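In response to a reviewer's request, we include the raw inputs and outputs for one of the modeled complexes. The two entities were modeled together in a single run.
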Amino acid sequence: MAQMTMVQAITDALRCELKDNENVLVFGEDVGVNGGVFRATEGLQKEFGVDRVFDTPLAESGIGGLAIGLALQGFRPVPEIQFFGFVYEVMDSISGQLARMSYRSGGALNAPVTIRSPFGGGVHTPEMHSDSLEGLMASQPGLKVVIPSTPYDAKGLLISSIRDNDPVIFLEHLKLYRSFREEVPEESYTIPLGKADVKREGTDLSIFAYGAMVQESLKAAEALEKDGYSVEVVDLRTVQPLDIETIIASVEKTNRAIVVQEAQKQAGIAANVVTEITERAILSLEAPVLRVTAPDTIYSYPQAEAAWLPNYKDVMATAKKVLTF
Amino acid sequence: MTSNNNLFDPVKNLQEIEEKFEMVQILNENGEIVNDALDPKLSDEELVELMSRMVFTRILDQRSISLNRQGRLGFYAPTAGQEASQIASHFALEKEDYILPGYRDVPQIVLHGLPLWKAFLWSRGHFVGGQIPEDVNVLPPQIIIGAQYIQTAGVALGMQKRGKKSVAVTYTGDGGSSQGDFYEGINFAGAFKSPAIFIVQNNQFAISTPRALQTSATTIAQKGVAAGIPSIQVDGMDPLAVYVATRDARERAVAGEGPSFIETVCYRYGPHTMAGDDPTRYRSSETDSEWEKKDPVVRFRKYLEAKGIWSEEKETEVIEKAKEEIKAAIKQADGVQKQKVTDLISIMHKDELPYNLKEQYEIYKEKESK
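The model returned the following structure tokens for the whole complex.
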């Protein structure tokens, strides 16, 4: 075991997989000798060579095409998109091509590609760096979308993503890269995709969250405990497919729920969670399922982030509304 | 205003570049060798085989159009006129080469090993049409214009990493050369020096939009300069010129010298697709008849007849065989089971189905059992 930040856990997962499987290739803009703009691939090119870990020209669409072509030659590509706001340049390769590889070949071909990409607000990035666009990916049949919130989850989920034989979008929250350390095993381990994790048990209210909103929800849960409420916090970890079993079991226990996301209300995946709950557990509900989200504007100018991004106070306020409905 | 600084003449720079991309031809319209130095000197057997494949493809086009009109085929993009460009380029390839076709490039993948009945199923819109046999190195035809180019850069890089002596080959049209993925594809392959052959079949029109409206560049071939890769424009109605350009590009690629770019100047006699396109709206009959004089099948026939290795009887024999093969393939396609929603769910993932699809599988299985 070692104390790792999330970005160290990610590097460690990549190292484990590069070592375990010679078909794993890591590539993208500045991921080689530079070790990535956030040091996520630090030291990997030195350890595994330029044949396994390499830089590409500056073109996201080309990177997507490269991944698809390499997958067709039996490789297991792990490309990086420098910031997920740049995904628009590579939407066809992801949604139009990768996601459909198995289907359009009648199951004859597959695309074991894991796209890593940072996103998320709170660190005053310039335009199009912090946008939460997981909702776009989650609505594309054929993709799995994974968003870890802790170093331990990040390593286990990334190893699972790389080993998955279908395309996975692995989104890394910028604010969580180095915000805290956690015990992480040095050897390989996996966490199943599509499995949520109860980060805190409670009996009065379920909070479903992912990404940076997990920490905000835990903070809110702690504060609510002082007011006498027992709050359960469920980290979705995979936002497509959802872990219906864990979500519904939690709602059936607490009878009240909110869903917390950093994305705008019209984006993200919170509406999917609400719908699943109302379709499957409406008779358990003592109050409507409310959402905590950002407002439906373009992502905030950096100086307005503090006012724009949802935080633990918003979680508390919405939780109280549901608790006192 | 023109610059009076005679050391700086961008207009001359452009002219000099464009002059370098003059169209290469080996066999003229009358079936005569006009460039003996470039003649690939194929054996009689090879020449007859190439001609047979071109005739097969012309018949396949005629039959496909007619089957489409009868409602026995679905999506179809006519190929007549492009036989030299499509078939002679494929003739320079080996079995281990990988083809990433566009939507008009069905003949190449059929000749590379995709069973014809599967090609017909692809046209109709049946998933079995996309089930490429394991030993056949092709993708199903690509509908997103340009996507096949960036993917080719990836397949070629994969071959390079595996140490294979093979190439990745892809095709797009003149309109496709305006796409971003077109440029990114040739540029990536160039930067990685990977074994790829990029072919633009310039058939003069992208649906109704003429070639001149795509770009002010005089040739499409010169776009290869932007990627720093060897590029050439050939007479796309001349099977020998197309063959030589592809063969040479392949040799350079497997020798580790990187990708090449080929523009074939050709023409499609038919409409863009059979989905209601009417070329008389945008093409004059004069243009059509001008290009009909350049017909690749006609000029190659003349060439082979003059050599005494092709005859009317031989051609009839090829045509009859093609018709029989097509008939058998349509019959085989007819016999394939109808698609069910549970089939579509089953082919979504290589690994286990996610919960939502598992649930929906059960729902549709129940529906289908009634």
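As requested, we also summarize the result in words. Chain B has a mean pLDDT of 96. Chain B has 14 helices and seven strands.
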